[in-house]
């Protein structure tokens, strides 16, 4: 079998086009322009690339982008004061604090200081609790993007065996909640899981979110299963230079799977598209 390639880039372009239409409607009908504030502390190069890309796409769909770049040694007090100011600003409908934060800052404290209604990452403890109990919440962008692609490919996910490899608060745990919400039978596997290959082999849906390059080989995949690859890892090429790869070994998995997301061009573009969608949702909710 050769897997169907799930084109996250095209999918994300479609989501962004729908967001842009919604933004136009909000402007025309309510006179409101949604605004997204992104806070970056320090100079982590990967974070700088993400933040730039988020800002560019925010403007492209017609929203206002507010970037706040703070020095790496910014105190918690200063950061919390900025968040309080953004919470109170009616022009700001979404707030994102880029992670990871420098080690001297308490990420949980910072994230939980964001107004949950503006928490477009869905990381605030209130949103985590709402998602876990099936209530209306802000849903983390990466798992939301994965779910949208899975629904589009499968239609109903009801009764399917889903194995999420990785237990992070950003991806693994919320992904499992979303799949459970769509009536999958869900397993969260991680670095301590016994006989990981046997666990993955049971899966109709594998979500790879461990952050280890090409860790999941095709031999672990049940023929016809869907592989959603959240990993973005940079590896050296034998001929020199580097390239991006996922957490699944693409070639061997694509030979067995029914469908697979590529890296790059799979989950990545969907994450930013979902961030824009969450911002429009936050703006609509704030304005009745
Ligand atoms: N760093 C890596 N991924 C994310 C994300 O989805 N949101 C934030 N805020 N930081 C990140």
Automatic annotation (TrEMBL):
NADP(+) binds at residues 166-168, 232. It catalyses: (6R)-5,10-methenyltetrahydrofolate + H2O = (6R)-10-formyltetrahydrofolate + H(+); (6R)-5,10-methylene-5,6,7,8-tetrahydrofolate + NADP(+) = (6R)-5,10-methenyltetrahydrofolate + NADPH. Keywords: Amino-acid biosynthesis, Histidine biosynthesis, Hydrolase, Methionine biosynthesis, Multifunctional enzyme, NADP, One-carbon metabolism, Oxidoreductase, Purine biosynthesis. Residues 140-285 form the Tetrahydrofolate dehydrogenase/cyclohydrolase NAD(P)-binding domain. GO terms for biological process: L-histidine biosynthetic process; methionine biosynthetic process; purine nucleotide biosynthetic process; tetrahydrofolate interconversion. One of its GO terms (molecular function) is methylenetetrahydrofolate dehydrogenase (NADP+) activity. Residues 6-121 form the Tetrahydrofolate dehydrogenase/cyclohydrolase catalytic domain. GO terms for cellular component: cytosol. Its EC number is 1.5.1.5, 3.5.4.9. Homodimer. HAMAP family: THF_DHG_CYH (MF_01576). Belongs to the tetrahydrofolate dehydrogenase/cyclohydrolase family. Catalyzes the oxidation of 5,10-methylenetetrahydrofolate to 5,10-methenyltetrahydrofolate and then the hydrolysis of 5,10-methenyltetrahydrofolate to 10-formyltetrahydrofolate. This is Bifunctional protein FolD.
């Amino acid at each position: 079998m050769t897997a169907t390639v799930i084109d996250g880039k095209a999918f994300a372009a479609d989501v962004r086009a729908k967001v842009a239409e919604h933004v136009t409607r909000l402007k025309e009908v309510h006179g409101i322009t949604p605004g997204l504030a992104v806070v970056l502390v320090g100079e982590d190069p990967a974070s700088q690339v993400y933040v730039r890309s988020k800002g560019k796409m925010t403007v492209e769909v017609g929203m206002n982008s507010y970037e706040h770049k703070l020095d790496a040694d910014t105190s918690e007090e200063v950061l919390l004061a900025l968040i309080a100011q953004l919470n109170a600003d009616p022009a700001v409908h979404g707030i994102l604090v880029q992670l990871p934060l420098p080690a001297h800052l308490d990420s949980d404290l910072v994230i939980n200081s964001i107004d949950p209604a503006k928490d477009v990452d869905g990381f605030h403890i209130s949103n985590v609790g709402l998602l876990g109990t099936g209530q209306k919440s802000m849903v983390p962008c990466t798992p939301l993007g994965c779910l949208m692609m899975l629904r589009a490919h499968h239609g109903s996910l009801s009764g399917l065996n889903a194995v999420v490899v990785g237990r992070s608060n950003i991806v693994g745990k919320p992904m499992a909640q979303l799949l459970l919400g769509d009536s999958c039978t869900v397993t969260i596997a991680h670095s301590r899981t016994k006989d990981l290959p046997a666990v993955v082999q049971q899966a109709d849906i594998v979500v790879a979110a461990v952050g280890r390059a090409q860790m999941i080989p095709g031999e672990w995949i049940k023929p016809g299963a869907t592989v959603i690859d959240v990993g973005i890892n940079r590896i050296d090429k034998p001929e020199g230079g580097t390239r991006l790869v996922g957490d699944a070994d693409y070639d061997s998995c694509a030979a067995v799977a029914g469908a697979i997301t590529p890296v790059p061009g799979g989950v990545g573009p969907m994450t930013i598209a979902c961030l824009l969608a969450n911002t429009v949702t936050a703006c609509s909710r704030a304005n009745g």
